[in-house]
Amino acid sequence: MKKVKELFEKYRKGEIADKKKIENIVYILIMLVILVIGINQIWFTEDKEKIEDNKQVITNSNLNEEETTQDLEVRLKNILEKVSGVSNVSVLINYIETKQIQPIYDTQEKETTTNETDNEGGNRNIIEKDYSKTVVYEEKNNEKNIIIQKEEKPKIAGVIVVANFNNNNELKEQIVKAVASVTNISEYKVQVLNGG
User: Fold this and answer.
1) Smallest Cα–Cα separation from 104: which of 153, 147, 152?
2) How high does pLDDT run on average in the chain?
């Protein structure tokens, strides 16, 4: 870097006779910088597009999961409002985990056993195991979709229900039992509050 500065100073002062070479070197350096920036932009744009595609897939799956969880809240709200003496119901469900999807795997196992005997009478058994596991896809209209073996719904941690039920303990207990049976959680995880 020091030599470049010295060379530039000599050029500026007019001490270098062959100015054309220096100008060509400067032009080449400028072109290299532009080329590096251009290549970086192209690679960055491709990576950015891949990231955006991945974000879109993740966002779509999150939307489907969010729709499912909100759907349960809405269905609970609608059914509880049909109970005589209960009105203005709001339901909040708290989840521990998101839903789990277990795809079908194509598994291949291969075991090879080799017995070796050396000149001195020693035996050696060599067992080689190869194991491979790949996700099975279904292709429709040039689109690959994972074949799902099992899909587990999100696990529920607890439910809060706010409703107008005039502090009727019998109605409150009915609400708790109904919510517990629909969500498959223990009754102590269901809180029912009287709304105002």
Assistant:
1) 147
2) 77
pLDDT at 76 over 60: yes
Torsion angle of the four alpha carbons 153, 156, 160, 165, in this order, in degrees rounded to the nearest 10:
60
Whether the pLDDT of residue 58 is over 50: the answer is no
Cα separation, 146 vs 69, in Å, equals: 22
The distance of Cα 34 from the centroid of its chain, to the nearest Å, equals: 36
* Cβ neighbours for 69, distance < 8 A, ≥ 6 positions apart: 93, 95, 154
Coil, strand, or helix at residue 12? helix
**What token pair was written down for 45?**
């744009």
Q: Taking the CB of residue 179, how many other CB atoms lie within 10 A of it?
A: 25
Q: Is the pLDDT of residue 67 over 60?
A: no
**Is residue 181 within 8 Å of residue 173, measured between CB atoms?**
no
